[in-house]
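TA notes, week 10

Several of you asked for a full example with nothing omitted. So below is the full record: structure tokens for the whole chain, then the designed sequence directly under it. When grading your own attempts, check the secondary structure regions first.
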């Protein structure tokens, strides 16, 4: 898990880069990935229903990533719907550079966490390595979607 690979992939991403699938713009994708990190770092408050659904879903999702997808972006299902908290389709006039810099800052924060275990809204208490792996996978998947992350 090399976060430097994510940073170099982000440097290749341009505002006009189009995805291989889906309908998000590159700015929307960056905002979506930051929203994901914000939820995983508990910076975003979730309503109780989403918290419960997310917690139950999160346990199965982590097992799915580990044993079915095997953390390979090529194996993950394309065009899945997303939770409202991560949805950026309604976002207009996004500043590409701002969104890119925010995501880089968020990823550096995740990378720097050294607690042995973390609590987040989707997985409960998880080992640091598993937490970082989920964030890394999600970001790499979307950078792969925009053809700037090479496996």
């Amino acid at each position: 898990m090399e976060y430097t690979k994510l940073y170099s992939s982000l440097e290749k991403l341009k505002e006009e880069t189009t995805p291989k699938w889906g309908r998000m713009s590159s700015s929307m994708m960056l905002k979506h990935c930051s929203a994901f990190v914000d939820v995983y770092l508990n910076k975003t408050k979730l309503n109780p229903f989403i918290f419960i659904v997310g917690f139950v879903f999160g346990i199965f999702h982590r097992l799915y990533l580990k044993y079915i997808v095997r953390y390979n972006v090529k194996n993950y299902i394309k065009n899945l719907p997303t939770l409202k908290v991560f949805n950026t389709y309604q976002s207009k006039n996004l500043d590409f550079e701002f969104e890119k810099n925010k995501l880089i800052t968020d990823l550096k924060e995740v990378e720097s966490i050294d607690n042995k275990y973390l609590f987040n809204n989707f997985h409960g208490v998880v080992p640091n390595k598993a937490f970082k792996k989920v964030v890394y996978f999600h970001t790499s998947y979307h950078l792969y979607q925009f053809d700037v992350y090479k496996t």
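The beta strands are 117-120, 124-127. Use that as a sanity check on your answer.
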